[in-house]
Amino acid sequence: PITSVQQTADGNAVLVSTLDSTIRLMDKSNGQMLQNYTGHTNTEFRIRSCLGLGDALVISGSEDGKICIWDILEGKVLKKIEAHGGKVASAVACNNMRKEFASAGADGEDCRIISLILLTWIGNVIIWGLSQKGYQRD
User: Whole-prediction pTM value?
Assistant: First the structure.
């Protein structure tokens, strides 16, 4: 089953998350898979993924509480972030203007705002630092 869908900014592709621990980038015009992203766990819960930094990154939660970030073109994991103490990281949302994304844990008690500190060159993105703020419900 599909857990989330997001269209790319140019409207030519769709990012699709599924319950087989794979996220796929699909061509909208012909349905072909352009790239896949693995390395996270998503077999049981609805976990949302998103595109970040002008569609340069794929960001997803994981059932082990981590957040995974992939290079959209190469499909390789750039970073895994311990974010929710082993609990399900169920949703992520990216703010491209602020170069931040937010994640929420499945228990509804924990939200993290993560700032990406990036080094970019010639179309490649390297994540070399992160800043996290955690918020807990009273």
Answer: 0.78
